[in-house]
Design brief:
The protein is α+β, with helices and mostly antiparallel strands and 349 residues long. It folds into three domains: 86 residues, Alpha-Beta Complex (DNA Primase, Chain A); 135 residues, DNA primase DNAg catalytic core, N-terminal domain (Alpha-Beta Complex), CATH 3.90.980.10; 102 residues, 3-Layer(aba) Sandwich (Dna Topoisomerase Vi A Subunit, Chain: A, domain 2), CATH 3.40.1360.10. The protein contains 14 helices and 15 strands. A five-stranded antiparallel sheet has the order 1-2-3-4-5. Helix 3 packs across helix 4 and helix 11 runs parallel beside helix 14.
Length: 349
């Protein structure tokens, strides 16, 4: 396995202060020469997680976890040593030399291709929304009272009822293998390629670097299922991303509202509430909680008022509490069942 030099590893380590890095995941308080907080690696009520700014190490007296800043990032983000090193290098602005074995090179190139496919596809769908034959989607957008600013911010689009996406991607020069890796196109038992998203309002899912990593699509008639989403693939992990965080992180607020669906987040944004994300389902994961903790300390859970939403609220509270977040629960007055319906009926205040 190819590796970086010891000198480069030391440079990355020294350019990432361990207190600053861990503070993005854990609320730390100084006590003497060290900082203490609740351990992110096991459940505890009293802080036993210690961070030493002098030694640049961490140690939990409860579960025994410990190491330097690279070990922390590796453990908290579920990365191997090399991936954690690369993440910290990017964070500190250090350019790494190209270093990979043959298998890594193939995977890296495929990821780059899929990211490019997703970027082109998002723009393709977005442009479709403004075409004359997209009346059904345009009427839906008008009914939801979404203006052009919101449509462009979230790059909302429209997928047609044909195989136009596959044909477009072939014209752009992508191979069938690359297109299939994006999960946007399927192949029938007869060997025919077809678009997986058809006649739907499209929501690109972006990571915090604004890269398109997946898509969600909503039907515009009574077809089932109501929503379909990209499966996990080479660039997308559902439990490690949140819809709208790339937008919410720019709000400048130290609080984030967590809702269930795309339209909940988009509807709130349309009405001036810009610090909102959707958890891509009703089950908030620990990885999503840690990601949120990087950008805000207070979390407001605004899931639907049905049974599933209430159960997810309790689960989300447990996860966020273990991460040391300040938690609030959004209470909806009136007859609204979710934040989207509430702001449409009663406004944002």
């Amino acid at each position: 396995m190819a590796r970086y030099s010891d000198e480069l590893i030391d440079e990355i380590r020294s350019n990432n202060d361990i207190v600053d890095v861990i503070s993005q995941y854990v609320i730390l308080k100084r006590s003497g020469r060290n900082f203490f907080g609740l351990c992110p690696f096991h459940k505890e009520k009293s802080p036993s997680f210690s961070v030493s700014p002098d030694k640049q190490i961490f140690h939990c007296f409860g579960c025994g976890a410990g190491g330097d800043v690279i070990h922390f990032v590796s453990k908290i983000e579920n990365l191997d040593f090399k991936q954690a090193l690369e993440m910290l290098a990017e964070k500190s602005g250090i350019t790494l030399p190209i270093l990979a074995d043959a298998q890594d090179v193939v995977k890296i190139k495929m990821k780059e291709k899929v990211h490019k496919i997703n970027e082109i596809t998002a723009q393709f769908f977005h442009e479709n929304l403004y075409k004359p034959d997209a009346k059904l989607a345009q009427n839906y957008v008008k009914m939801r009272k979404l203006d052009n600013r919101t449509l462009q911010t979230f790059q909302i689009g429209y997928s047609t009822n044909f195989d136009e996406l596959y044909k477009m991607l072939k014209r752009e020069g992508f191979s069938d293998e690359e297109i299939m890796a994006s999960s946007l196109v399927g192949k029938s038992i007869k060997g025919q390629f077809y678009d997986k998203f058809k006649n739907r309002l499209m929501f690109p899912i972006k990571d915090v670097q604004d890269k398109v990593i997946a898509f969600g699509g909503r039907v515009l008639d009574d077809s089932k299922p109501k929503y379909i989403n990209s499966p996990e693939n080479i660039v997308y992990s559902k439990g490690r991303n949140l819809f709208g965080l790339n937008v919410a992180k720019k709000s400048g607020k130290d609080k984030i509202i967590i809702v269930e669906g795309y339209m909940d987040a988009i509807s709130l944004y349309q009405r001036g509430i810009t610090n909102v994300v959707a958890s891509l389902g009703t089950a908030l994961t620990e990885a999503q909680g840690r990601l949120l903790r990087k950008y805000a300390s207070q979390m407001i859970i605004g899931y639907d008022s049905d049974g599933a939403g209430q159960a997810a609220t309790i689960r989300g509270m447990e996860i966020l509490q273990n991460l040391g977040c300040d938690i609030r629960i959004l209470q909806l007055d009136g007859e609204a069942k979710d934040p989207d319906e509430y702001v449409i009926k009663y406004g944002s205040r």
